[in-house]
Design goal:
The protein is of the alpha/beta class. The chain has one domain. The chain has three helices and seven strands; from the N terminus they run αβββββααββ. The N and C termini lie far apart (58 Å).
Length: 132
């Protein structure tokens, strides 16, 4: 009986390790008026609503670029998404809770969709948070 219980525990343990949470995917329109990049760190994408590095700043870090990505999902405006979220409060001095937004977006696979000359390119990014 002990062997059966140990065997059953072993099988259930392996099965639970094999189950990984599948992340949903978000596609944000790349808005050059809202997303800021710097020449020194071109693979970091900051947003205008971020609180800044001294307090703690939210940004996206580039993972990879994909030219031909087939999807039927609709793109979301990043500015509208941030400003309508529970992490943004117009009445506060620091309007965005950067850390909380970064933590929330870690549960998603995120793409910034950039359109140039009628052609779309996809930049896969991860949410990041940094205090300088």
């Amino acid at each position: 009986m002990k062997i059966f219980i140990l065997f059953l525990t072993f099988i259930l343990g392996i099965n639970s390790l094999a189950q990984e949470k599948v992340k949903d995917t978000l596609f944000f329109t790349y808005d050059s008026q809202y997303i800021i990049t710097h020449k020194e760190i071109p693979n970091h994408f900051y947003i205008k609503d971020g609180s800044g590095a001294r307090i703690g700043g939210f940004y996206f870090t580039e993972v990879q670029k994909i030219e031909n990505y087939k999807t039927k999902k609709r793109e979301i405006g990043l500015k509208e998404f941030v400003r309508s979220s529970k992490f943004y409060d117009e009445n506060r001095r620091l309007k965005l809770w950067d850390y909380d937004l970064s933590t929330y977006l870690k549960n998603y696979v995120i793409f910034l969709v950039k359109t140039e000359n009628g052609k779309k390119s996809y930049i896969q990014v991860e949410s990041s948070f940094e205090i300088e």
